[in-house]
Amino acid sequence: MGEGERFASALRESIEQSGLSLTAISQRLRARHRPVSVATLSNWQSGRSLPGGVQSLGVVAALEELLGKAPDDLADLVGAPRPRGRSFRPASFVGRTGRREVFHRALDELGFDAPQQYAHERVFQQHVVIDSSRDVQRFDYRLTVRALESGVCRLPAVHLLEPTEPNVAPEFIPLEGCTVGRRVVWPEHRAYGVELKVDGVLDAGQVATLAYRVEMKAAATDLTSAMYSVPRPANDVLLEVEFRGDRKPIGCERYRRTDAGESVTSVRLDRRGRFQVSDARFGPGTFGLRWEWGDLDEDEEGEDSC
Predict the structure, then answer these.
(1) What is the pLDDT of residues 167-183, one digit of tens each?
(2) Whose CA is closest to 288, among 260, 252, 259, 247?
(3) Burial (0-12, 13-18, 19+ Cβ within 10 Å), 257
(4) 26, 170, 222, 234 - which has most CB atoms within 10 Å?
């Protein structure tokens, strides 16, 4: 049974147990400011279509609450589509084993030693600005998260610097809807991170939005990738890298890894000097963009080769 069939079956069973008609469910969802038509509900429970997008994310969360389900009981049954690109090969951890151990130690240090302590990242947007005229590079993050427990909603932000990057602690700057709690500063492991706390107190299943910025003290050519990992399925992910200044990468690729394996596809810079990776119902896994720099002469000759 595929993900769509499992979701449809679980939704049908939950609706039958509730004793509510589709019309009644639609009316109650509308009263909760989560409007969805009877036809859409019918398509979901029959398996003819699946929820997708930010609005459907909120509808499924409200459905779980209305039908007496635990947070993500239904949402986690909405699987990811089969990726396009080169065929998959068996997955292996990208990077040194020591880095993975450091990453998990950093999570423990920040107070994330159990899965339910993570907020569920449901919608993720990352905008990276790589500027060859500056010595500070900017990573902006905007997330819609869902609380898995009632209380303070938290999630970690951990950066393991690459060998090409200066071993200088990044600056984590809350922009909207969050504050910074505990910190990890381990220059000996090139590891830096913070605990992000969503403003206010949330009930289990409640959705909130936050934004933060990470400023990296590095030259543009010190950075060769922008990656992000999600521990649970996310409805929508978008990562955009914008290159400013005279330098442009000469080779660019889109990277995607899940439990099934990994895929790599070439991408091209658009006319604004940007490239993107986006996906729907992605995770758990890692996605991102990787690029390489050439000499100044190569950059000028191969500016349109990405």
Answers:
(1) 999 999 999 999 999 99
(2) 252
(3) buried
(4) 234
Residues forming beta bridges with residue 127, ordered by sequence position: 140, 240
Q: Quick: pLDDT tens for 242-269.
A: 999 999 998 899 998 887 888 899 888 8
Closest CA to 235 of 71, 49, 77: 77
191-198 sheet: strands from edge to edge: 154-160, 191-198, 178-186
Q: Which of 53, 234, 218 is nearest to 139 (CA)?
A: 218
Placement of tokens 């993900």 in the chain: 3
Q: pLDDT over 70 for what percent of the chain?
A: 84
What are the structural domains of the chain? 3-77 (1.10.260), 97-301 (2.60.40)
Q: Identify whether the C-beta of residue 212 lies closer than 8 Å to the C-beta of residue 141.
A: yes
Peptide bond into 166 cis (omega under 30): no
User: What SS3 string covers the chain?
Assistant: CCHHHHHHHHHHHHHHHHCCCHHHHHHHHHHCCCCCCHHHHHHHHHCCCCCCCHHHHHHHHHHHHHCCCCCCCCHHHCCCCCCCCCCCECCCCCCCHHHHHHHHHHHHHCCCCCHHHCCEEEEEEEEEEEECCCCEEEEEEEEEEECCCCECCEEEEEEECCCCCCCCCCEEEEEECEEEEEEEEEHHHCEEEEEEEECCCECCCCEEEEEEEEEEECCHHHCCEEEEEECCCEEEEEEEEEEECCCCCCEEEEEEEECCEEEEEECCCCCCCEEEEEEEEECCEEEEEEEECCCHHHHHHCCCCC
- Between strands 171-176 and 207-217, the pairing is antiparallel
